[in-house]
Amino acid sequence: MAAAEQLNQNHAIDWSQGAAWVDGAIVPAKEAKLSVFDWGFTRSDVTYDVVHVWKGRFFRLDDHLDRFLRSVDGLRMELPVDRDGLAQILHDCVARSGLQDSYVAMVLTRGQPDPAWPKRLPSNFKGRNNLICYAIPFVWIMKPEIQETGARMIIAEAPRIASSSVDPTIKNYHWGDFTNALFEVEDTDADYAVLMGPDGFVAESPGSNIFAVLDGVVTSPNHGALEGITRKAVHDLCELMGQPDAQRDITRDELLDADEIFMASTAGGIMPIRQINERILSNGAPGPISRVIHAEYWKKHDEGWHATPVNYGA
Amino acid sequence: MAAAEQLNQNHAIDWSQGAAWVDGAIVPAKEAKLSVFDWGFTRSDVTYDVVHVWKGRFFRLDDHLDRFLRSVDGLRMELPVDRDGLAQILHDCVARSGLQDSYVAMVLTRGQPDPAWPKRLPSNFKGRNNLICYAIPFVWIMKPEIQETGARMIIAEAPRIASSSVDPTIKNYHWGDFTNALFEVEDTDADYAVLMGPDGFVAESPGSNIFAVLDGVVTSPNHGALEGITRKAVHDLCELMGQPDAQRDITRDELLDADEIFMASTAGGIMPIRQINERILSNGAPGPISRVIHAEYWKKHDEGWHATPVNYGA
User: Fold this and answer.
1) pTM for this one?
2) Does domain A14-137 have CATH number 3.30.470.10?
3) What would be the CATH architecture of the domain defined by B15-137?
4) Is the ipTM reported for this complex over the cut 0.90?
5) What are A147-203's pLDDT values in tens digits?
6) Which of B307, B229, B235, B301 is closest to B63 using CA atoms?
7) Which CATH number among 3.40.50.720, 3.20.10.10, 3.90.1150.10, 3.40.50.2000 corresponds to the domain A144-302?
8) What part of A 248-307 touches B (C-beta under 8 Å)?
9) Do A45 and B175 touch (CB under 8 A)?
10) Distance between CA atoms of A70 and A72, rounded to whole angstroms?
11) Which B residues in the span 196-255 are in contact with A, Cβ-Cβ below 8 Å?
12) Distance between B66 CA and the closest CA of chain A, angstroms
């Protein structure tokens, strides 16, 4: 039955949910799997990056490749392909999927161990690191219609995992603290959460960087969070627009007292917040600076800012 | 080709590496896979437990089932089967594998999200949590021949993830801090590492609880670590043998000054340490109390202590 099913699938391949590169071949995304023995699963010993494609063009592809290669080095892993080969795989995934707006992931796991090894150490895995890439329909952490109205956020009680234990600048899947924060979101009927670092400063939201407009300055934390590419884009846009911006420590009180708050992520772009804990921001709507940055972010996409056209003919 | 390969595999199934229960069916362990979109991977949103089978009998199966069910509750997940159904699956996996000595895992992931959901919250996954079980050949974190001689351990600089961020009593795959400690092991040519908690007390080793013999008392940390079943077995054995034991905070200095040190884990049992950082313990061999507990642990296995015979006829 499994064989017949397999055969059937080969005759009517469905690429609507995207395409994935796994074990050296491109398959429909829904068939992309990983061994349950891969340390990428059993030890979350994995790093990844996500670049998006908008209207057929990658956004800041080089920035994402740079960061991913740094993460791979940081975990002492090695890609089975070089930088150009990796870019080619990403192009191929998007091309095969046919998607014009896509969430494009590159994932490198430690790989599968050999039970015969006398020691169970990461260095044993030389040549076994496991690359998985995929292009799926664009992911919105916050749906566009909610971006119009803004969302409600809580400051989670759960503290962010300390940077000394797991480096947040090496993009990782250690979401246990984020998951705890999402439980708090569920319990308070909020929409999103932001976590404080163990040092008492604002860290990040699950999957997003956080921005606060403080005395007119667009401010993001300068440590304890992923060095987001969308965050970088926001700071670049501020420079271009002559909008004052800064990266510095943000206290809990400053966040609660901010003029405006928004999140930034590849998966959704600029995401305005209209309430933080009990406090209503900007009369319960996205603030003026958030609106301008949101608009500018997407306008720049249309203008081809930091864009790399997908090679759909590949 | 994929279909032909599949067919071929069905005709000559190899159970030598174990059997796994995935998506409701038992398959050879090496075929056990998980979608790369399962939050169990992309968010390490997963809990698990491991019980072992020795000479055809589960060891402390009820303790492991109890702990796993607590972990599942702690992550607000639900098993697709009840406790008896779960035990049956574990028996079935071991029976199908034919293994007499086995590492038997039960794993529950959050599952695969639906991109159409307006919010991306754990509660959306009701009915989608994904159970995976498997029985593979017994895993030795420390090979038996090394258990005879003892191993060398370092105290890692990398601190354990704080319990306030990720609860270590809910057994999890958040190994980023452990992986950093293993890099230190590689860099110093040691064998194993132990991590300090962020509160400055001894926490645990990657995959193992730690014990120090302090002034003749077999001591394990009382917080900041997994509540190990092998750890429990050690304390039970101490009671039975009239050996003084305790669970309390252990400082770095106490550990460095311990009479003896050993690790305890389902995957390997009692694992003696003969060196901690630069200090040689017990003249560079397992200490006398470690040896007695090691011997008693396996003797009790032969006597059927806390044993549940595997139903191989299932």
Assistant:
1) 0.95
2) yes
3) 2-Layer Sandwich (3.30)
4) yes
5) 999 999 999 999 999 999 999 999 999 999 999 999 999 999 999 999 999 999 999
6) B229
7) 3.20.10.10
8) none
9) yes
10) 5
11) 198
12) 21
